[in-house]
TrEMBL record, chain A:
The chain crosses the membrane at residues 23-42, 78-104, 116-136, 156-176, 213-240, 260-281. Its main location: membrane. PANTHER family: INNER MEMBRANE ABC TRANSPORTER PERMEASE PROTEIN YDCV. It comes from the Bacteria. Keywords: Cell inner membrane, Cell membrane, Membrane, Transmembrane, Transmembrane helix, Transport. It is a multi-pass membrane protein. GO terms for biological process: 2-aminoethylphosphonate transport; transmembrane transport. It comes from Streptomyces sp. NBC_00119. This is 2-aminoethylphosphonate ABC transporter permease subunit. Coiled coil: none annotated. It is found in: Cell inner membrane; Cell membrane. It holds the Pfam family BPD_transp_1.
From TrEMBL, chain B:
Its main location: membrane. The chain crosses the membrane at residues 12-37, 69-91, 103-124, 136-159, 192-214, 234-255. It comes from Streptomyces sp. NBC_00119. Pfam families: BPD_transp_1. It is found in: Cell inner membrane; Cell membrane. InterPro entries: MetI-like (IPR000515), MetI-like_sf (IPR035906). The keyword RNA-binding does not apply. It comes from the Bacteria. Keywords: Cell inner membrane, Cell membrane, Membrane, Transmembrane, Transmembrane helix, Transport. This is ABC transporter permease subunit. Residues 65-255 form the ABC transmembrane type-1 domain. Belongs to the binding-protein-dependent transport system permease family. The keyword Cell membrane applies. One of its GO terms (cellular component) is plasma membrane.
Amino acid sequence: MASATLSAPVNKAANPRKGMPKWVWALPPVAVLALVFLYPLALVVQQSVQPDTGGTSLKPYADVFASSAFREALGTTVWLALGATVGCLVLGFALALVIAFVPFPGGKAVAKFIDVFLSFPSFLITLALLFVYGSVGMANGLWTDVTGAASGPFQFLTTPWGVLLAEITYFTPFVMRPLLAAFSQIETAQLEVASSLGAKPARIIRQVILPEALPALAAGGSLVLVMCLNEFGIVLFTGAKGVTTLPMLVYSKAILESDYPGACVVAVVNVLISVGLYGLYRVVSRRAGA
Amino acid sequence: MLVHSRKGKWATWVLFFALFLPLFALPLLVIVAASFATSWSSALPTGFTGGHYQAATSGASLQALTTSLVTAVSASLLALLIGTWAALAAAALKKSGRRVLDALFMLPVAVPSVVVGLAVLVAFSKPPMVLNGTRWIVILAHTILVTAFAYQSVSAAIVRLDPAYEQAAASLGARPSYVLWKVKLPLLLPSLNAAAGLCFALSMGELSATMMLYPPDWMPLPVQIYAITDRGSLFTGSALSVILMTTTLLVLLLVSRIRTKASYR
């Protein structure tokens, strides 16, 4: 009896159960994903080559690429995303450096606050900036109170600079989190040794901390780059006619102008850029082990 | 430890807070302050009123809150089901198969949410599946967007799982289904909770895809905030934003409490 119960599982382990192979279990979720996500995405690509006049042609692409609105949006999207990424990296590195290596009481609370910050939607930042730098906001109010002028000097909110400020504010925590994780892996004894050998803080940062943080910086930076390219809420809430990014162009073409083939063309371009960069991010972050 | 002198330390801290407070703390404080203010035309808001909250918790705004809650809860549960299933199935596969599943389920993160909205709109506006104009299209789009995050956090937890438990259970003769229900899922429960909180928070704040496809009778909170601020009622918009943030935080707190209880098991 005892030997029978013992031998059965051993057989099972040595000889995996026949029957369904393991990949069958992966089919239901993949089928759902294909139906609700991959098939719609394929339809977008299909519609992008089918102009309203019927037939299949690349005319929608030619039309969109020729329009100045598209080229302007592409340029704005790319420079905003690059600018915001560089800003987030510099600011996030500096702030994370202080939290990790010049610790102060309440540093844990600041790190917690950053986690909470990440769970809020991005458009709240633009809404807040309206009260801080808007035409009747805090900064301009302070200016008119002090100088007695009729209006304040801060009028940048509806320009690309307002979007840039909001994006840097919102996305910097996304860089700080992997950086703080990377910094916690650095042996503090290394810093003490470098410092006792006479290295100044700037040199310690450059030669000890930076090499260790490089993978986390690369991973965080490419994630933020993709998220900035895809950002919609901040631009929508800014409400500036002068700032059009690719996601904004998709929205206005599809919903406001009902130009679906045009919207689909812009969407395909946006997807290609973002998915390409995201693939790069996955490769980088896998190398970094993040 | 990087800066040793007292003076240097203080200088660093002052610089830190001079950057940190205006950039990250001020925006949230400003929204809370504005939600109680009657007007804001100088350095500080003037007048104190609870009226914006009255406006924010009645009529269309209250409906937007319940809409968002129902959408976020259903999308999170659906995403958790699909994401966990996919993550468990992927963990059982060989390396190449797992890579394919990883890429497939992480794809919605890389695709801009606006495009996800457009794609769902294009696909479900025509037969055989007409969902356009119903609440289901919003819930569907949110589910697609948050499933990726559920998948990601559950697969990360599965990798950390000690295989000794399931091997022990299996060697004692437990069938795979029994191992899954009685061993694997209970061990994964803390991460499932965390994933649920993440999905809920993301869905509560989702604006991009929702703007593309919400029907007039199913308007989630972020869209309502946009509609109200676009009409110029910035203060009511702030009150709604505070309600949105508080609800999200409360649910996250609740979920983290469940997690601490579960981790005693």
